[in-house]
Amino acid sequence: MAKKESNFVNMVTTLAIVTAVAAFTLSMVYNLTAGPIEEGRIARQQEAIRYVLPPTEEMTEFDKLVTKKFLPVTGSDSITFNFAYVDGELLGIAVETYTMRGWEGFISAMVGFYPDKNIVDVVHLEHSETPGLGDKIEKGRDDWSNQFRDFNTSEKELRLKGDGGDVDGITAATITARAYADAIERAYLTLKEVFDEKYLTLEY
Amino acid sequence: MNKLKIISKGLIKENPVFVLLLGLCPVLGVTTSAFNGFGMGMVTTFVLFMSNLVVSLIKNFIPAKVRIPSYIVVIASFVTISELVVEAFMPDLFEALGLFIPLIVVNCLVLGRSEAFASKNDVFSSVTDGFAMGLGFTFALTALGGLRELLGAYSLFGYSFIEGDGMLVFVLAPGAFIGLGYLTAIFLKLIGDR
Predict the structure, then answer these.
(1) Which of A7, A14, A124, A176 to mutate to test the interface with B (most CBs of B within 10 A)?
(2) How far is A203 from chain B (nearest CA, A)?
(3) Which of A4, A7, A25 sits opposite B77 (nearest CB)?
(4) What pLDDT shows up at residue B78?
(5) What confidence score (pLDDT) does residue A203 get?
(6) Do residues A158 and A181 touch, judged by C-beta distance below 8 A?
(7) Which of A149, B32, B88, B167 could tie A131 with a disulfide, CB 3.0–4.6 Å?
(8) Is the pTM for the entire model greater than 0.80?
């Protein structure tokens, strides 16, 4: 079969058909994958909430979760508080916090607090830090973030040791470590504010 | 054309990375570990295979003057499809490759094969070429990723051999250039090209 001639009508119709078929195919694939993608995102978030909350005896974790957004003390975007209750008693608070100060900008993390405002544990959610260096903030890659486990916020400062705090840095990834501490500190300071102004009694 | 010859060309004689030096952006960007390199290679192989298939099927219906935009639309579609599928069903791989999957669109290797091979050959030769080139690309990325992981983190495919931090330079961008340079030299020496 001879090639089509490159005249105006041929070119316009060909491009129109090619793009229309491509758009239709993509919309089909999008519909097929939108569900699993959203489920995966929610599953990761829920898993993170359960991961950072205080462990309960039967690992049923909690029977009520109240989600509330607050504007943090510093920063312009709101952060999400998940208050977990067992039999009407506050078990802990999982705070989804963020920082813009990472080496690649945005980093988000889930920080769990005991009702006494000490940290239970921290787990990362999203980041684009350098693989092999900054990604040591991830739980699975390095035990660096384990230093936040049972972190006593009333006695220790959520800042790097080099900045006058009590958090160890990461070799060759100081900016990432500082940003992660910044995210956690933002969660803590906002939590303190929320507690002091007794928002909590209003929510439950 | 002989199919075996096409395969050996894609893998060795015209290896897209070590001989043609095409698509170097993902080569340098994602090869911080052997697994990342391998994953990127497999996604690129899928895109190469599918776009070569479609381009060779539609080549006679495309007027010559609009062939490049048509091919790019085809390639971009398959890249987006693979991005959505990887994000939905392989979240770990997606987390590792992240930004680099959309960049396959501008990988000159993919458009290069569509233009230079699929638009001139029959369907079966074209998919063979796409597959072979993809494998050659995967091989090169896995080798470079493995080298960088080995020297930079003392591990391979995530299994650590020696305790310690490794040579940081190999994890960072300069290490990619150094590694690629040496691997290219060794590869060309081995196939007796220089």
Answers:
(1) A14
(2) 35
(3) A25
(4) 92
(5) 46
(6) yes
(7) B32
(8) no
Q: What is the pLDDT of residue A199?
A: 56
Q: Which residues of chain A have pLDDT under 70?
A: 1-3, 56-61, 198-204
Residues from chain B contacting residue A140 (CB–CB below 8 Å): none
Residue A29 lies in a domain: no
Residue A37 domain-assigned (yes or no): no
CB B75 within 8 A of CB B111: yes
Q: What is the pLDDT of residue B193?
A: 62
In a domain, A156, yes or no: yes
Torsion of CA B133, B135, B140, B146, to 10 degrees: 170
CA A54 to chain centre: 18
Chain A residues near any Cβ of chain B (below 8 Å): 1-7, 10-11, 14-15, 18-19, 22, 25-26, 29-30, 32-33, 35-37, 40, 44, 128, 130-133, 171-172
Contact criterion met (CB < 8 Å) for A133 and B172: yes
pLDDT (mean) for B67-95: 88
Q: How confident is the model at residue B96, as a pLDDT?
A: 74
Residue indicated by tokens 């991961």:
A51
In DSSP terms, A160 is beta-bridged to A167
- Residue of chain A with shortest Cα separation from B158: A141
pLDDT at B142 over 70: yes
- For chain B, list the strands marked E by DSSP: 155-156, 159-160
Q: What is the mean pLDDT of chain B?
A: 84
CB contact under 8 A, B60 and A22: no
Number of structural domains in chain A: 1
Residue A7 lies in a domain: no
What does the domain layout of chain B look like in residue ranges?
A: 29-146
With beta carbons less than 8 A apart as the criterion, state whether B137 and B41 touch: yes
Q: Do B81 and A29 touch (CB under 8 A)?
A: yes
Q: What is the ipTM of this complex?
A: 0.73
Task: Residue A149: give the domain boundaries.
Answer: 50-203
Query: B105: buried, middle or exposed (CB in 10 Å: 19+, 13-18, 0-12)?
Result: middle
Helices B173-190 and B123-153, packing angle to 10 deg: 120
